[in-house]
Design a protein that fits this description.
The chain has helices at residues 2-8, 13-41, 50-75, 79-92. With 98 residues, the chain is mainly α. It has one domain (2-92).
């Protein structure tokens, strides 16, 4: 557990539990919300080949995940922590924020 706390850069056991809960809710939420969002845009599995649909679905899930992570992190009272996590993720995608 000490390794995970060091890896996630959390200080207390409470924060550790909150971080895990927020990551799990956000991950599952992104999977479930991506499909209706794609429908609203007009992207449907039956209308396009699978090799086009799935990269688009992953893109939608990634965008949903990024937004939901900050929202649920803020609701859980860990806005500063999740904003730092978000900046690290965006940096890996080549997007730099101050």
């Amino acid at each position: 557990m000490a390794f995970l706390k060091r890896l996630l850069k959390v200080e207390t056991n409470y924060q550790f539990v909150v971080v895990f809960i927020v990551f799990s809710i956000t991950g599952m939420g992104a999977v479930f919300i991506a499909r209706p969002m794609m429908g609203w845009v007009g992207i449907d599995y039956e209308q396009m080949p699978w090799y086009t649909f799935w990269p688009l679905r992953i893109l939608f899930m990634t965008i949903c995940y990024q937004i939901m992570l900050v929202i649920f992190g803020t609701i859980a009272g860990q806005r500063v922590y999740f904003w730092q996590v978000e900046k690290r993720m965006l940096k890996r995608f080549g997007i730099r924020l101050k």
